[in-house]
Amino acid sequence: MIRKFTPRHGTFEAVRWDGRVETAELLESWSYHAIQCHVDSRDHISSKLFIRGGCAAAVGDYIVRMSCGQYIPMSAQQFVKSYEPLLEVTR
């Protein structure tokens, strides 16, 4: 699920990579194919995501879309220290 998060200096979208095919498809679509996943055909799970520019993300990492459109992987520990989720407002 794509959620919005806020650091001290803006609002960003992020997705936590869980290794599932469904999440890989969501990430590829969300990033306009800047993120690619190579899925193991035996178990339909991938341990790594590859991000345009040479970065890779491991299962458990967050993928953050910066305001400039760049995608960066971030460990869950660093992400939790840096960002907090925006509260969803229902109307």
What keywords describe this structure?
single chain; 91 residues; alpha+beta; 5-stranded antiparallel β-sheet; globular
Q: Report the average pLDDT across residues.
A: 82
> What ranges have pLDDT less than 50 throughout 5 or more consecutive residues?
none
Which radius of gyration do the C-alpha atoms yield?
13 Å
Q: How far is the first residue's CA from the last residue's CA?
A: 20 Å
SSE series: EEHEEEEEHE
Helix content: 10-25%
Number of E-type strands? 8
Structural class: alpha+beta
Coarse morphology:
globular
Structural description of this entry:
The protein has 91 residues and is α+β, with helices and mostly antiparallel strands. Helix content is 19%, strand content 33%. The chain has 2 helices and 8 strands. It has helices at 21-30, 76-82; strands at 3-6, 12-16, 35-37, 48-51, 55-58, 62-65, 71-74, 84-85. It has a 5-stranded antiparallel β-sheet. A 3-stranded antiparallel β-sheet has the order 3-4-5, with helices on one face. A hairpin with a 5-residue loop joins β1 and β2 (12-16). The longest helix is centred in the N-terminal third of the chain and has 10 residues, at 21-30. The chain is globular and about 40 Å long. The mean pLDDT is 82.
Topology:
Blueprint: E1 3-6, E2 12-16, H1 21-30, E3 35-37, E4 48-51, E5 55-58, E6 62-65, E7 71-74, H2 76-82, E8 84-85
Antiparallel strand pairs: 1-2, 1-8, 2-6, 3-4, 4-5, 6-7
